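Human: Here is a favour to ask of a fellow structure person. Comparing notes only helps if you start from a blank page. Give me a protein, with the fold worked out from its sequence. Please set it down just below, with no commentary around it:

Assistant:
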Amino acid sequence: MCILDEHGKKIEEKFGVSTREIKRMSTVLKLHFVSEVCMESTGIYWIPVWRLLENDFHLCLVNPLFLKQLPGRKSDVKDAEWIATVLLKELVRDSFVPEGNIQRLRQYGRRINEINKDLVRYQQRMDMILQRCNIRLSNYVSNINIKSYRKVVNALIHGETSPDSLIRHIHGRTINRHGKRVIQDALEGCVSRSDRDLLRQYIQMFDLCQLQKQECINSMVEMCQELYNEAFFFLLSIPGIKALSAAIIISEIGDNMELFATAATLVSWAGLRPRNDESAGKIKSRKITHGNKYLRKALMECAWGASRTIDSVFYNRVIHLKRMKKHHNVIVVAVARKLLTIIWTLLSKKERFDPEYHLKEITRPVSA
């Protein structure tokens, strides 16, 4: 810790990482009448320090990329002195750190993202076991997360191995599309006891993840209805946005749009603006920039839903862009960018989505 004042007086002291040590550091800061505290964003290690200091000081979290000094003679003591210097001279800009309730809401959203990855991994493991048994049902179904596939796996766990018995669990459309003989051949294999045991374990883990995911969703929706009911209600009025998507959007940007000066600022923070990579009059890239990947993923899913909502303003906009021969990925990004712009407008003005009022904003030209 390094304390600097306007007269150049410097106070330095080293502290541990325990809660007691951080509280002692807070006491020392108060004794010297410190009002502003700046720290580097170092993984997740800044979070406990932030939680213990946020009620007593004005905190500033800065990306380490903006605090780098000249190479050489680097130490923790010199880093602390440099951070205090740039804060005193107002040379740094702090990062967006949401308030406590939003951070707790965000934990549920990040957990749902982890569970979705686990669900896909368990499904792939189950299919891998079936492939080892020479049961190739996944070659003839649209995806492995369907009822027919799950029924076949449950039948195999309970000892059914005859193709004639297993084919009764397959949907009629799949049989009609590929033929009964082909599906029977795909269901014939050699299943051992170890295969059935592993399939049962993966099914149990899959069901547990589904249960945990639903608990997180219920908690998120409950928190939004209790703490951010107005913003939650405004987001649900937009085509393509349902309860889970609205909760995830609130968990990432909050409900106070004063933190983002303009809609363009929020769009840039989310990483949905085309990058400006041009040299000597030649455009090298127009891909979207880096940003909040969790928010961007949720907006992409909402964009797909909004573009398929028939008779909505987004649906008509997508039809117009397709006539202009735009690539479908460009169209989805464009709709997601418009969605985020409208979200900023609704939360800033505290109003519901009005298709006729926001039609002008949606139909503005979209850059490729």
